[in-house]
Design brief:
The protein has about 90 residues and is α+β, with helices and mostly antiparallel strands. Helix content is about 25%, strand content about 30%. The protein has 2 helices and 4 strands. Strands 1-2-3-4 form a 4-stranded mixed β-sheet, with helices on one face. Strand 3 (about 25-30), helix 1 and strand 4 (about 60) form a beta-alpha-beta unit. The termini are far apart.
Length: about 90
């Protein structure tokens, strides 16, 4: 989490896979609109990656939307092609 004077500026949600401890996942990275483009999101991603690698994770997947691909590219993530998106509508 990124804070300034008690205000939350951004956060990242991630976890180590419960079924394969070699894999970590970043599910979400959010930064308040007025604080974007200041490097906060990139620092949050770097921090959670460091924490996961310290836990012996070998690969971290980021679950991204099309609009966030360039952000994760800047964070040195590459396309892995290991996942297939599926959805179900009501």
């Amino acid at each position: 989490m990124a804070e300034e004077k008690g205000d939350i500026l951004g956060f990242t949600v991630g976890y180590v896979s419960p079924t394969n401890s070699d894999e970590g996942f970043i599910h979400l990275t959010m930064v308040e609109k007025e604080h974007r483009k200041k490097g906060i999101g990139k620092r949050l991603v770097q921090k959670i990656c460091l924490l996961m690698f310290r836990k012996k994770v070998k690969i971290i997947y980021a679950i991204v939307e099309k609009r966030t691909i360039s952000f994760y590219n800047e964070c040195e993530f590459k396309f892995s092609r290991n996942w297939i998106e599926m959805s179900k509508k009501k």
